[in-house]
Amino acid sequence: MGKKRRQHYVPKFYLRNFSHNEKSISTFNITNSKYIKNASIRNMCQKNNFYGSDARVEEFLDKEIERKAGIIIKRIIETNKIPDIKTDFEDYEHLIAFLLVSEGRNLKSADSADHFADTMAKTILKVQSKFSDIDIDKFSVKLNYPANQTIEIALNCIPFVLDLKPIIIVQKTPRKFITSDNPLVRYNYLYIQRNYHGRGFGYTTRGLQLFFPISPEKCLLLYDSFVYEIPDIENNTLFLQKAREVDYLNELFYLNAYNNVFFNERVKEELRAGKSTREA
To answer: Which of 70, 108, 147, 264 would you label with 99, given CA atoms 20 to 30 Å apart?
Structure first.
């Protein structure tokens, strides 16, 4: 057996953006309805050999995705400027790669891939006569390192979202943005308004919106500019002056979480207590 390696499915540099000391972060564990003050970032969002014992994928994520993305995101936070797709395509494409891979590499995506493989395999096996005497549901079908497959899918999907318009949302209120172990939020206000429930979240779908908080004050938004007009944008920046607008986004981030929500200070009591209604 290979050596056990602690491998993070949410980058440590990303969580540090929401920490007051770069070592720990306030956490609300949804599964256990438990608030953890100053949880260790080093121990958060990690599993042994999550991407494999040979460290190949882990090193790829570190060297080819995280390091440069960390520099780009730091620059966005400091300057409120997103790389221009026309004049700085390489950095912009790398930023998009980081956003999509952040979804593909995490535990929720890995578990979803496992569930899909299990369901499909059992559906196929149940109609084959040679398995008629076997209770297929007593067994589980799992992938070896499912996150590796969803990472590859995410990288292949980069061209599909390059037509979305990027802006940075800056909140100027006493509130703070939160984040989670599943930080990329797919949303589609157009489909929701039309009651197209359960649809509209594919990367090529009309009306797609992608939210990604990058600090307690700032959040990236990529949106379909052929569908939505957002007023009051200045230099690709939207300033939020009302606390309830930040609350709306935080509710979205909370509902998109898998197991954990992260923040650098205590947020509203109802959020920490898990009183927000989570979608099935």
So the answer is: 264
pLDDT value for 54: 87
Cβ-based neighbour number of residue 34 at 10 Å:
12
Residue pair 148/51 in contact by the 8 Å Cβ criterion: yes
Tokens linked to 206: 């009309």
How many angstroms separate the CA atoms of 183 and 144, rounded? 24
* Segments in the chain forming alpha helices (H): 12-16, 56-60, 67-79, 89-104, 107-126, 146-156, 189-193, 243-256, 269-272
For 138-169, b/e burial (b = at least 16 CB within 10 A) is eeeeeeebbbbbbbeebeebbeebeebebbbb
pLDDT at 269: 47
Paired tokens of 39 = 């949880």
d(CA 14, CA 179): 10
241 vs 244: CA distance, rounded Å: 9
The pTM is what?
A: 0.90
* 3 state SS of 258: coil
Residues 76 and 218: beta-carbon distance below 8 Å: yes
Q: At what angle do helices 89-104 and 146-156 cross, to 10 degrees?
A: 150
Mean pLDDT, the chain, rounded, equals 90
Residue type, 180: S
Say what the pLDDT of residue 278 is: 43
* Identity at 221, one-letter amino acid code: L
